[in-house]
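Consider what follows.

. . .
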Amino acid sequence: MARPVPAQSRVRYRQRAPLMILAALALLAGLWAGLIRLGWQLPPLALQLPAQHGPLMVSGFLGTLISLERAVALSQNQNGVRLYYLSPLLAGLGAVTLFLTLPTAVPRGLSTLGALGLVLIFVVIYRLQPTIDHGVMGMGAFMWLVGNGLWLIGKPVFQVVPWWAGFLILTIAGERLELARVLLLKQTARNSFLAIIGLFLAGLLVSLISLDFGIRLAGIALLGLGYWLLRFDIARRTIRQKGLTRYIAACLLPGYVWLIVGGLFWLTYGGQYVAGPVYDALLHTIFLGFVFSMIFGHAPVIIPAVLGIKVPYTPLFYTHLVLLHISLVLRVVGDWLLWLPLRRWGGLLNEVAILGFLLITAVAVRRGKKNEPSRK
């Protein structure tokens, strides 16, 4: 018989729901803006919306989500302290204000404060548990802060995006290193991981002076990190299991391949392209192929932790996963061959995969609730 959720816990879950709604609004607006940027004739909703695709997806959606996840974990560790929820709230509000005709300093400033909040959260986490994985995730949060700071002072987005990518890459890499503890990695493996992270950080720092050389240097690090994750991540073992465990591994392993492909693009093209199809491939091999693969895989674990809602496994999860990777191949080939219709349709199917993920997850949650024993 299912154990009832305590009333106090239900209240906490409901209090987190508005922050999830802010993240969802940013995601949907970012997807809409992405279709317009791909050339689909859609109403812009707001005149400035198409230019805000990147900020909506990174700071608005992912920044809010990651901050909320960490705020929940730290708040539970410290008897329900609510101060940590300021970080996701500020990031979410930064996304919402992008819809409004306000000075650019308002949404950018809110997003920067949200990133600062996440850095401070990781300072507390690291003081409680000074481990390498927490240090790496904290460095990822710092990269988000640097990226938003550059955005706030008016640097062009193509200079900001590598830092935003670093935020997500290091957050994910740190989480995977945390889970790899059970493998009892040798010191040489840990040292190689840190060397790769150091090279990536060096590449981003160099990109502030020489964008082309810095991106190529960071690309070498992405190649190394993708190989390291394929070699040492526990997903290599769990792919042989069944159900949800196997599905998560099936999300992670292709994501690592896309990280290597993205590294090859960064190494090959560097900062030569700051717009257009090749630039599109440089970004979306990372943001879609790597990051969204991780989101698809981790959602059935993160959603219950944040909202207290069970996400029962269903084989239908493979539908959006397969569609994401097939459509991304189409998009990247269209980018590389400058075949714009293929790129456009690939991009549309990318978004169908993400919306399918949301829909199938919602259906799984609903079915799970129906199958639960009645509570008295």
Summary: The longest helix spans residues 7-38.
